[in-house]
Amino acid sequence: ADAGLAPPVVEPTNQQKEIAKLKNLLFFQIESQALDGDGGESEGAKKALQELLLQGKEALISQMRVVLAPLRVSPLGAHIDHQLGVVTGFNISRYVYYVFLPLSHPSVLLSSTSFSPPLSFPLPPPPLKKEDWGNHARGACLSLINFIKNKKNEDIRPNGMIGVIHSTMPIGGLSSSAASTLCYLFSLEFCNNFEVSREDKVELCRQTENDFLGLKNGLLDQTTILFSRPSHLTCIDCQKGVRETPTLVRWGEENNHDSGPIPFKVMIVYCGKSRVLANTNYNNRVTECREAASLLLLTDETKKLREVPVETYEKNKHKLPDNLAKRAKHFMTEQARVFEGKDEWRKGDFSSFGRLVFASGESSVNNYEAGSPQLVTLYELFCEIGQTGGVYGARFSGGGFGGCCLALVDPQQQDAIAKRLHAIYPKKHPEEKDCYSIHFCDSAESVRLLGEDESQNVGL
């Protein structure tokens, strides 16, 4: 370039713009809570914030760090992780952002772009509050502090943090709760200069959701978010848990396809209705699966369906009451679809893989009996469009009691598919006409704490 020419202007990416907005929002929170104290923070926390403010806005923004946690989809393996099945997932290019600053005081101060009001709690945190948006943060912090104590074999005075959390998608069906929990684990780990392996983070997430929040889910969500890579299907054997690193299968690797992006778009349709899994039939379904396993094995002990051999299932399935028979059938057929789907992904056969995803959705409706009316409508619309219309496969995403429906679609036909959904869905569910939304995504990397060079100079 000529010496007299100015360097080319490099436009910030959408991700950088998002981070810049959140950094400015965090600075505003620091100012307001240091001066007004409207978040319930202690005097010690307030003093720590006032000390931060003395550094000035530019210095503070340059010190802010960012955790970027992708959301995830599970094309096959629905509702079987809690029964120790083999499940699949991959991350998508929609994220939970957590922008934070360490605090020298043992307090956590949080604000959210989705929930209010801001909240604060000491470390270690007090008991969880009923239906409070900060419970995932409380549970994650408690899990990590206990983990550090056990590793160091001594009591600790943990450093706290102040942060802003933001999701680029509506809440529901894409594991935003697991993504948020991982944001809190990565950030508090950084604030306390302690390193936790990804395998241990899987277990800390499980403790947070199972032990503290009362949700009976398995390992799928956090394991996918922690380990998945672009264009790879993450296969997780929930019976082995974190003792074995998940298997990553690259799209088309059997036929030596290049390692480029998968040849379809992931279409996510938020139905307009969120849910809190602990307040739905989710936990009831888990209990029914365990009851079915115990009856099939002719025992009074609590069992899971992975422990039931296929031969035993075929021999004893007639003994199950109707609802339990359906739950067991879903597990057995879904597990078979996972194994077949893994092979089709390896071959790069999106038509065959998609048919399995459609079948998984059908079993979720008829055998697992999940699905709000809104989600069932979306699934049926995708089935009507079918593979000739550019929808290779579709099913609910997540627990199936609200949230999202996913479809694997032909990029050349995505606009036509969206147009058809816009024409039909709001007429069938007018109560959701201003709430539902359509998103097109690619596969994405795993969760990470952005490096200093990535976090600095954004937002100034």
Automatic annotation (TrEMBL):
Which BP terms from GO are recorded? galactose metabolic process
* A GO molecular-function annotation: galactokinase activity
Q: Which domain of life is it from?
A: Eukaryota
One GO term describing the cellular component: cytosol
Organism equals Paramoeba aestuarina
Positions of the GHMP kinase C-terminal domain: 346-426
User: What protein name applies here?
Assistant: Galactokinase
Q: What is the lineage of its organism?
A: Eukaryota, Amoebozoa, Discosea, Flabellinia, Dactylopodida
Q: Which UniProt keywords apply?
A: ATP-binding, Carbohydrate metabolism, Kinase, Magnesium, Metal-binding, Nucleotide-binding, Transferase
Listed PANTHER family? GALACTURONOKINASE, MEVALONATE KINASE/GALACTOKINASE
Q: Which residues form the GHMP kinase N-terminal domain?
A: 159-228
